[in-house]
Design brief:
heterodimer, A: 437 residues, alpha/beta, Alpha-Beta Plaits, Rossmann fold, 3-methyladenine DNA Glycosylase II, Chain A, domain 3, 4-stranded parallel sheet, 3-stranded parallel sheet, 15 helices, 10% strand, elongated, B: 144 residues, alpha+beta, Heat Shock Protein 90, 5 helices, 35% helix, globular
Chain lengths: 437, 144
């Protein structure tokens, strides 16, 4: 595997080299070079902001193609709760799940159900006086990576429990192996996702050595297939297992509400998440035990790989939540899940903003950076390819940019040169007559 | 930069809570770029933030001077405010003279000075009634 795998990548042909993405990126991970955006891999957290902002659709999330399911004899779809918000309200949850069987999967298991198991385990942690507060959900992988690069002091506050996606894959694969006697190596679990960061999580997990998920397929890649298979006649098997609390995870605030404490805070949108984390770092957040932080505005429903408009999808999810609430009493008996969900790997601080390994050298660079920055126009126009004048100053001291990358500095130099040429031109050698200079 | 010592200076505006915390936020960025350990960054940033807020709320603004180098982060926040008449009392958790308006914004809970003391490795306060207050915070970092 490559050292850095990222789902978010650039389509060179489509990129116009504009400044939209560099300015939107929360970790200043993009520069424009030779007319094309370049992603700095160490800094990218796969939040998908650049995908959303790009007017030329040049940023994309790499996910697996639908055909990847053919590599396994027994194929199981594990759709994210966001899936329920993508279809017309009259289509029931069970019909949506049955459509997965119609398009080629042998089984389907709701990640929303696994989310409830994660919720039960989270509740225990939140109630435990020994855990550091506020605890921060690790459900959003972009938020976990954000903490790794920008908020290292919050690593201890992260809830180090597997994500609903991983839990779902484990449950469903185990069940297929035990109940149907299928060889585990023949079973493939495929996450149906609205999220770019989840694809990265499967290919390059931080919480374990290897993910239990075998492929990540974007919602937009299965959407049309599902629509054309959403025939009532396919709606034969009862596949719904999740309750309203699991379904509601798709929404911002859903996970927080499920934890069952008033002392929770839900924040969505990566830039809002950053503001809240700044406050947590300053010890300014009081009376909060649990923070649900989601990189996408609106939560997972606002994911870059979802099809339906976030606000439309919200209304639809609400209906599914209400339906599930009404059914609560005759829900199927809950299976218990008592496997250990705790991460098997530790995550470490990635000091990507550090200027130098030697602190004295870093100080010299920082002072040079400040001097350069004072000389720049401060317009943050982005024409140099860096998101701000300060970022350009930083690139200069890191040796990956020069001062004349700034068009104002370049003009200044040209003007100086022109006046010098004028001055020289005015001078004449004494033999040619009067020296005006 | 003389003797491996980096000096920073920030003005702290008076009574404006909307921008309060900008100086400590800038210092935090500096410490991150210098590669200081997250634990020490947190100690320095939180203690400086609280002192900065105090200067805004109580001290009619002031200035922050920071020295970083040789294993030591030294933060001095000086204001020309009313001073602290009873320092011992002010160091107690929950003791506050902040106005209701300030409290409504989520500040003034009386945790400022106690929090500074908790996070600083060394804390010196010079205060004189009617003249002002000088809060000096030291955070040590492993000098490698």
């Amino acid at each position: 595997m490559e050292k850095y795998f990222h789902s978010v990548t650039l389509d060179e042909d489509k990129c116009m080299g504009c400044t939209n993405c560099i300015k939107r990126c929360p970790t200043e991970a993009i520069r424009v070079r030779n007319g094309k955006a370049r992603i700095i891999n160490e800094r990218c957290i796969d939040c998908g902001e650049c995908i959303r902002i790009c007017p030329y659709r040049a940023k994309k999330a790499i996910t697996d193609e639908f055909s990847c399911i053919e590599k396994f004899k027994y194929k199981i779809a594990i759709p994210a709760p966001t899936i329920y918000g993508q279809f017309k309200p009259e289509i029931s949850r069970n019909r949506i799940l049955n459509a997965f069987k119609a398009i080629g999967f042998d089984d389907v298991y709701e990640v929303a159900r696994a989310a409830e198991y994660v919720t039960y385990a989270t509740r225990k942690l939140v109630l435990d006086d020994a855990s550091p507060k506020p605890l921060i959900s690790s459900a959003c992988p972009a938020v976990v990576r954000l903490i790794q690069v920008r908020f290292p002091s919050l690593i201890d506050n992260l809830i180090k429990l597997e994500s609903p996606m991983e839990v779902a894959a484990k449950i469903v694969k185990k069940k297929a192996a035990e109940k149907k006697g299928i060889d585990p190596s023949d079973i493939g679990a495929f996450f149906i996702t609205p999220c770019a960061a989840k694809a990265t999580s499967v290919k390059a997990p931080y919480e374990s050595k290897k993910s239990s998920v075998d492929g990540v397929i974007s919602i937009k890649d299965v959407y049309l297939k599902l629509i054309s298979s959403m025939d009532r006649s396919n709606d034969t098997e009862l596949l719904t297992k999740a309750g309203f609390e699991g379904i509601r995870w798709a929404n911002s605030g859903g996970e927080g509400l499920a934890v069952g404490t008033d002392r929770f805070l839900a924040v969505d949108g990566i830039h809002n998440v950053i503001s809240i984390f700044e406050e947590v770092e300053n010890d300014k957040i009081e009376n909060v035990d649990f923070i649900e932080a989601l990189a996408c505005t609106g939560g997972c429903l606002g994911g870059p790989l979802a099809v339906e408009n976030l606000y439309v999808a919200k209304t639809r999810i609400k209906k599914h939540v209400d339906d599930a609430k009404a059914l609560k009493d005759d829900r199927q008996p809950l299976e218990t899940y008592d496997e250990n969900m705790v991460w098997t790997e530790e995550i470490a601080y990635k000091p990507v903003m550090k200027l130098d390994n030697d602190i004295r050298e870093a100080m010299r660079k920082l002072e040079a950076l400040e001097i350069i920055n004072r000389g720049l126009p401060g317009l943050d126009c982005g024409a140099c390819g860096a998101p701000s004048c300060r970022a350009l100053s930083e690139d200069i001291v890191r040796g990956i940019a020069v001062e004349t990358d700034c068009i104002f500095k370049l003009r200044e130099k040209v003007r100086d040169l022109a006046s010098q040429m004028k001055e020289l031109e005015d001078r004449r050698p004494p033999v040619m007559g009067n020296d005006k200079g | 930069m003389a003797d491996g010592l980096m000096k920073l200076h920030y003005e702290i505006p008076a009574d404006d809570l909307t921008y309060a915390g900008e100086a400590s936020s800038s210092v935090k960025k500096v410490l991150v770029q210098l590669g200081i350990n997250p634990v020490q960054i947190k100690k320095a940033a939180v203690s400086m933030y609280e002192a900065e807020i105090n200067a805004v709320i109580h001290g009619h603004g002031g200035a922050a001077d920071i020295e970083i180098g040789n294993g030591r982060i030294f933060i001095c926040i000086e204001d020309k405010g009313p001073g602290i008449p009873d320092l011992e009392l002010a160091m107690q958790e929950g003791w506050s003279t902040a106005s209701d308006e300030v409290r409504e914004m989520g500040f003034g809970a009386g945790m400022g000075l106690p929090n500074i003391k908790r996070y600083a490795d060394k804390l010196d306060i010079e205060t004189e009634t009617g003249k002002g207050t000088k809060v000096m915070i030291t955070v040590m970092y492993p000098n490698t």
